[in-house]
Amino acid sequence: MKLKLERPLVFFDLETTGIDVTKDRVVEISLLKLFPDGTEKITTRLVNPGIEIPAAASKVHGIYDLMVANEPSFKDITSSFLEIFRDSDISGYNILNYDLPLIRQEFKRCGIEFPPAGTIAIDPYQLYVRKEPRDPMNPSDSRNLATAYRFYCGESLKNAHSAEADIVATKEVFLAQVEQYSDIGNTLASISKYVGMGTTRSADISGKLIYDGNNEVLFNFGKHAGKKVKDERSYAEWMLKSDFPEDTKEVLKKIFASRK
């Protein structure tokens, strides 16, 4: 099946100063806006992070301090980013664990809550690991974008860690997934429901936590699905020690901080 969009879908990818989603900053952002009629528009720009770019990060993405010295800060161009994201859903490879929590922090520093309520967040990485489970006997069984691109598109990814190359590859991977897996449907609503991604009543972006009718936060997965987080503290503590998105962990921390 072909992907059917009811409103635009914005794929985005970040190059940053590091991997700490709460402290590191954006140095490059690339956005590919896919419209329901199939047309698309790509926007890529460098961003001055306001802090020094570590040598290790520059070695990965090739962006150095001098290259961004005269570029605008994230705050300076927030309005232009918001215009691109306006009335759109969002996607990106592994965005739930990295890009989305990090860009949320950037917007939060500007006093803006992002993304708006009702935004669907689609992560092709989550779909990949759900449909093609890792081989537990093969520690090198990677699920990075290059591997996904080779698996779904049959080609090697060129210019990896170029934000623009990565979002184009992510779009192609996602479109291939929709065509390959007929049981997930071809709308963002059906796909997000299949993998349990973010919707209007999610307490976190990944949809691991949801609100009930009384605005209590509930687990939305696993053996405690449907139970109140506050009543299952040991499970929440396990999540805090495990590989869950920082955004999800922040929600859990706030719940128990308010109960001390």
* Beta-strand fraction estimate: 5-15%
Radius of gyration: 18 Å
Shape: globular
Secondary-structure element sequence?
EEEHHHEHEHHHHEEHH
- Measured between the Cα atoms of the first and last residue, the distance is 51 Å
CATH class of the largest domain: Alpha Beta
Structural class: alpha/beta
Unreliable sequence segments: none
Q: What would you give as the CATH superfamily of the largest domain?
A: Ribonuclease H-like superfamily/Ribonuclease H
According to CATH, the fold-level topology of the largest domain is Nucleotidyltransferase, domain 5
Strand order of the largest sheet: 3-2-1-4-5
Task: Please characterize this protein's 3D structure.
The chain has 260 residues and is α/β, with parallel strands linked by helices. The chain folds into two domains: 9-197, Ribonuclease H-like superfamily/Ribonuclease H (Nucleotidyltransferase, domain 5), CATH 3.30.420; 209-258, no CATH class. 38% of the residues lie in helices and 13% in strands. The strands form two sheets. Strands 3-2-1-4-5 form a five-stranded mixed β-sheet. The longest helix has 18 residues, at 163-180. The radius of gyration is 18 Å and the shape is globular. The protein starts with 8 loop residues before the first strand and ends with a helix. The model has no long low-confidence stretch (mean pLDDT 89).
